[in-house]
Amino acid sequence: KQEVTQIPAALSVPEGENLVLNCSFTDSAIYNLQWFRQDPGKGLTSLLLIQSSQREQTSGRLNASLDKSSGRSTLYIAASQPGDSATYLCAVLREYGNKLVFGAGTILRVKS
Amino acid sequence: DTAVSQTPKYLVTQMGNDKSIKCEQNLGHDTMYWYKQDSKKFLKIMFSYNNKELIINETVPNRFSPKSPDKAHLNLHINSLELGDSAVYFCASRTDEGRVSFGPGTRLLVL
């Protein structure tokens, strides 16, 4: 059974700091890993998708890495801004089947 | 253009009622999902359909019945609503490469 863990559960940083969010998964038989952002009371916005054969993906100030063999991914946010405040969710799509399994999320607050 | 849309956005109802939530995607994806987000914000898969066929049915009470009339639609019908059904329900669809797009969610409150 695939389990996804995100650390820390919550993070509060001053504006401008670089930060790292961590995601780990128990079963390395994954098809891909996706990072989402969820604002309060809103839906999920896809940030980055890393296929199992890839090591990292970048979009603007965001960089996500994947180490499939060790079951870990990190989301790096550079020069954080108050607008980055949200819940960040990591999800893995299993190699066989359609199941997308989520972590519990990291609640990020960037203080101005 | 909304990729994955859900109606209604909010649903407030009494215990014991039957209600439906509709979902449509205009992305041409074959695979669609229903997820439940509980009060602790944890997202849990309920169902997955591929080309109108049920592939995943997690341990969901049989009061919940998904229906896929065509590839672009996956509706969720809930019978005999209970207090514990209060949650946010998200519909999603998936590309062949595995990218999942979510709808805006339906906030269900059972009184």
What does this structure look like?
The complex is a heterodimer of chains A (112) and B (111). Chain A is an all-beta fold and 112 residues long. Chain A is 0% helix and 60% strand. Chain A is built from no helices and eleven strands. Chain A has strands spanning 4-7, 10-14, 19-25, 30-38, 44-51, 56-59, 62-67, 72-77, 86-94, 100-102, 106-111. In chain A, strands 2, 4, 5, 9, 10 and 11 form a six-stranded mixed beta sheet that branches. Chain A has a five-stranded antiparallel beta sheet with strand order 1-3-8-7-6, with no helix packed on it. The mean pLDDT of chain A is 95. Chain B is mainly beta and 111 residues long. Chain B has strands spanning 4-7, 10-13, 19-25, 31-37, 43-50, 53-57, 64-70, 73-78, 87-94, 100-102, 106-110. In chain B, strands 2, 4, 5, 6, 9, 10 and 11 form a seven-stranded mixed beta sheet that branches. Chain B has a four-stranded antiparallel beta sheet with strand order 1-3-8-7, with no helix packed on it. In chain B, strand 7 (64-70) and strand 8 (73-78) form a beta hairpin. The interface between A and B is medium-sized, with 23 and 24 residues.
Q: How many strands, what sense, and barrel or not for the largest sheet of chain A?
A: 6 strands, mixed
Which percent range fits the helix content of chain B? under 10%
Radius of gyration of chain A: 13 Å
Distance between the termini of chain A: 41 Å
C-alpha termini separation of chain B: 34 Å
Radius of gyration of chain B: 13 Å
Give me the number of helical elements of chain A. 0
Helix and strand pattern of chain A: EEEEEEEEEEE
Content of β-strand of chain A: over 45%
How much helicity do the residues of chain A have? under 10%
Low-confidence stretches of chain A: none
Summarize this structure as a short list of keywords or feature phrases.
A: mainly beta; 6-stranded mixed sheet; 5-stranded antiparallel sheet; 11 strands; B: 111 residues; mainly beta; 0% helix; 58% strand; globular
